[in-house]
């Protein structure tokens, strides 16, 4: 059994997609990030970066008790190795999947996240910041589009690279991107969108998807934290 600590954000959806693709038994524990659930001591005990998703695997197979994993990329790698699924075993295939997983973790996710922040959540519209992150998101879409030219999937066969990337493309309209500008990416996106496991994963998040991801009070929690846990001067109020 996998206990999944989750909220229906792009990083949360990555893990439910993997779990649905592989059929692992799991139960969801919602972590309402706008209400501050991610700062509860019992959650911080195994997710020290106060971010979801995180998992507890109660049957890791090594006989030493449950294993906790935080960070969505680390969770995907852990679960892929646990199941022997969606991660190649050959050197070159594994290398390629790892490259594109890291591309999402270090590039697409952070840049699209800043895109969302400055366009939608910042207390004042800063044209330079908005343009900076909209343009960088656009550049990354172009990188992915070129990669998918002549390929069905990002790293050859369907893999955790596709699973990691897809949820960050779902909000393309919020990111001020037009999928028809990227025909190879759009074809891939439609293929992902139609996968039964992807459909099931998003359905699993439906009970919480109607709630605002970031309320006014939640902004204070999400965007004003310092090392001491206090709200910074000038942060959202």
Automatic annotation (TrEMBL):
<dbReference type="InterPro" id="IPR040079">
    <property type="entry name" value="Glutathione_S-Trfase"/>
</dbReference>
<feature type="region of interest" description="Disordered">
    <location>
        <begin position="210"/>
        <end position="237"/>
    </location>
</feature>
<dbReference type="InterPro" id="IPR004045">
    <property type="entry name" value="Glutathione_S-Trfase_N"/>
</dbReference>
<dbReference type="InterPro" id="IPR010987">
    <property type="entry name" value="Glutathione-S-Trfase_C-like"/>
</dbReference>
<feature type="domain" description="GST C-terminal">
    <location>
        <begin position="90"/>
        <end position="213"/>
    </location>
</feature>
<dbReference type="Pfam" id="PF00043">
    <property type="entry name" value="GST_C"/>
</dbReference>
<protein>
    <submittedName>
        <fullName>Glutathione S-transferase N-terminal domain-containing protein</fullName>
    </submittedName>
</protein>
<dbReference type="InterPro" id="IPR036249">
    <property type="entry name" value="Thioredoxin-like_sf"/>
</dbReference>
<dbReference type="InterPro" id="IPR004046">
    <property type="entry name" value="GST_C"/>
</dbReference>
<dbReference type="InterPro" id="IPR036282">
    <property type="entry name" value="Glutathione-S-Trfase_C_sf"/>
</dbReference>
<feature type="domain" description="GST N-terminal">
    <location>
        <begin position="1"/>
        <end position="87"/>
    </location>
</feature>
<comment type="similarity">
    <text>Belongs to the GST superfamily.</text>
</comment>
<dbReference type="Pfam" id="PF02798">
    <property type="entry name" value="GST_N"/>
</dbReference>
